[in-house]
Specification:
two-stranded antiparallel ribbon, single chain, alpha+beta, 4 domains, about 55% helix, disordered N terminus, 9 strands, Glutathione S-transferase Yfyf (Class Pi), Chain A, domain 2, about 5% strand
Length: about 675
């Protein structure tokens, strides 16, 4: 078993292969003890509380604990197993208890409050003022002003919530892994592209099965739902996908959803807030649930007429093509793809040969080089947690180290679905040393087969650029304090750097850098680029409506008193009523697998995807008005957005970059929804 000293060293070097899982729990316990001692030293300091001996000292406590936590919980997301999940269930309550020990430490709060109340006389710079404000609110918003009895209630709520969120995610991963659709007749794969059929065959062989295997992992699920002619099998697969956490068995999440929503409300009330959404949004750009509601309803008024028109058009198309009387959810991707092919003479499969994964990665790197002067040098010196993970040294134009970058692209049984950016080490400055960050993106893309490399769908291309945008936010961070660094920004601002990067995927100047046929090396034809652009507004009304429906569902759980809700499905159906196009499916429920809001950090924040789209569309118009790789605009984006993290108010940072406040019209123009 490793000592805490050895584990600390390994977490700095990321020697994953040498880590022993049974070292984590004792290491966490030791690191928590160490962090508690650091807190005690601050509290017991006889000197008058100052910014340096209290606020800065508090900022740098628990560094060892943070590093161990980042290693462990990143493993739990990307390379988990039963042992890791068991440790997570043991560790999470300990971390929650420690967090509450700090937040509810009266003596520590008194020192912080003393500094906060004398801030006008301290000559602090803007970043220091932000840190002080954040530290003070970290106490005041998390129970420091509660009575002792109330503090105990808060502790119990937080402990139960941390375990419920973990269990929620474990159930979804287990549900995803256990479902398999084994197909024995080749005719049942009619319509699927050759690559998807080959991948299904390979998947079956890997599991010692005969035939073709379709799973609920996105690279398997999406092609089947998009191209398979067999409607009955599409229905079977779609229902299985929508049933995750909703089957009244040992992996059911209905009770967990109700408990989490009610605990969040109870916690908000305890802290003096009307709802969980009121608590959360106080620290976001939107500020209030009312602002979010107005924002969503305004976009809904623009999107709903277009969505209804598009849906009617899709219904008529399916009816004329295949005599479909009632369009169902499992028909949507299939007939949308058929309609797109007819309208634009354009098929996503035509694009895939031009999007070999390695080329797209290099393309993202070259875009970053042109915009921000970065160089990505692949290295095998940095150890990884899985053989598929690639690592890079990131340098600036003067060959200074900017970051270490990890990229993990393919589905595995131990990896949760979706795509995300994360950090193993945040950028910060300590003892006059600018500690550079270790940043990772994790995805679930189409795997190589025996005859083809990994060829990405266009959606996977934009996903890669999206997560790479988050990574740039982390890599280019240049702040003093770790809690304000990189993506540590208001949640409705965090998607701006990621979503703006997607825009370059639609531009010929950027596509020319990397969209080359994997066999011939030929650049993507201009004709296809034109079709990508033309198709970019296809069914944007329906797409916008879908995103808005998720935001409205989120607010329906968190912007009200949920104590009387007893039926998850009924509550969800009521929330979807305003945005519903397809008939509801009795066997399906989204809430029980809505990991963004019940496991991740998006509770009361799912609207932020659309909020950030307003920002990114407005910001990208600035580039388009000048030049896609305009060095001055790119420098301004780096200086005011990417490097500043959460050191200033996000709207102020945006105005410094753009010279004006964001306008919704840019998004409506891009989406084709502006009349």
């Amino acid at each position: 078993m490793y000592s805490i000293r050895v584990l600390k060293r390994l977490t700095i070097l990321h020697h994953f292969q040498k880590l022993k899982l049974d070292a984590f729990l004792p290491a966490f316990i030791k690191a928590i003890e160490s962090a508690k001692n650091e807190i005690d030293q601050i509290v017991e300091n006889k000197a008058t509380p100052s910014f340096k001996n209290t606020i800065e000292a508090l900022e740098y406590t628990g560094e060892q604990l943070d590093r161990i936590s980042s290693i462990f919980f990143n493993l739990n997301a990307a390379e988990t197993n039963e042992e890791i999940q068991k440790i997570a269930q043991e560790v999470s309550p300990l971390l929650t208890e420690f967090s509450n020990d700090v937040a509810l430490n009266t003596a520590l709060f008194e020192r912080v409050k003393h500094v906060y109340n004398t801030k006008e006389s301290l000559s602090l710079n803007e970043e220091q003022k932000t840190l002080l404000d954040k530290k003070y609110k970290g106490f005041s918003r998390n129970g420091a002003n509660l009575s002792n009895d109330q503090k105990e209630v808060l502790r119990a709520i937080d402990k139960e919530q941390s375990q419920l969120k973990l269990t929620f995610g474990e159930h979804i991963l287990a549900e995803t892994n256990r479902y398999e659709l084994l197909i024995s007749e080749l005719s049942d794969l009619d319509g699927l592209p050759e690559g998807a059929i080959e991948a299904a065959k390979q998947l079956a062989e890997e599991k010692d099965k005969k035939g073709w295997l379709i799973t609920l992992d996105y690279p398997s699920y999406i092609p089947f739902m998009t191209y398979a002619k067999n409607r009955a099998l599409r229905k079977k697969l779609a229902i299985a996908f929508g049933q995750k956490g909703f089957q009244n068995d040992n992996l059911d999440n209905q009770e967990i959803v109700l408990k989490i929503a009610k605990l969040r409300f109870k916690r908000a009330q305890l802290l003096g807030y009307k709802t969980h959404a009121h608590f959360v949004l106080e620290e976001r750009m939107a500020k209030t649930p009312e602002t979010v509601g107005t924002f969503l309803e305004d976009l809904l008024s623009k999107a709903l007429p277009a969505a209804k028109k598009e849906f009617e058009e899709l219904e008529n198309f399916a009816k004329n093509l295949d005599s479909i009387d009632q369009l169902e959810k499992w028909d949507s991707a299939y007939y949308s793809e058929k309609l797109k092919q007819e309208r634009f003479n354009f098929d996503d499969e035509q694009l895939k040969p031009y999007f070999k994964l390695e080329n797209v990665i290099e393309g993202a790197f070259e875009v970053a080089q042109k915009l921000f002067g970065l160089q990505f040098i692949q290295t095998d010196v940095v150890d990884t947690y899985h053989k598929e993970v690639m690592t890079y040294k990131v340098e600036d134009s003067n060959q200074n180290l900017v970051a270490i970058f990890y990229a993990d692209f393919f589905p595995r049984s131990g990896k949760r679905n979706g795509a995300w950016m994360t950090s193993f080490k945040s950028q910060h400055v300590k003892n006059n040393t600018n500690e550079r960050p270790h940043i990772s993106i994790v995805c679930n893309f189409t795997k190589p087969t025996a005859t083809k490399p990994s060829l990405l769908t266009f959606n996977e291309v934009t996903t890669l650029f999206h997560e790479f945008g988050h990574a740039l936010h982390g890599m280019l961070a240049d702040t003093v304090y770790p809690s304000l660094s990189g993506t540590s920004v208001a949640w409705d601002f965090v998607e701006l750097p990621s979503q703006i990067m997607e825009n370059w995927c639609y531009e010929k100047e950027a596509l020319a850098l990397f969209a080359k046929h994997y066999e011939t090396g030929d650049s993507i034809p201009m004709e296809l680029i034109d079709k990508i652009k033309a198709a970019s507004t296809f069914q944007q009304g329906m797409q916008t409506l879908r995103q808005l429906s998720f935001g409205l569902l989120d607010m329906s759980w968190h912007g009200i008193d949920p104590t009387e809700i007893t039926n998850v499905k009924q509550h969800e159906s009521d929330a979807f009523l305003e945005t519903q196009l397809f008939p509801s499916v009795a066997q399906n429920c989204m809430s029980t697998a809505f990991a963004h809001i019940f496991q991740g950090g998006y509770s009361s924040g799912y609207y932020s995807y659309k909020w950030a789209e307003v920002l990114d569309a407005d910001a990208f118009e600035y580039f388009k008005e000048n030049d896609l790789f305009d060095p001055q605009i790119a420098a301004a984006f780096k200086t005011h957005i990417l490097s500043k993290g959460g050191t200033q108010d996000p709207l102020k940072l945006y105005v410094k970059f753009r010279g004006q406040k964001p306008k919704t019209e840019a998004l409506l123009r891009r989406s084709g929804l502006l009349n």
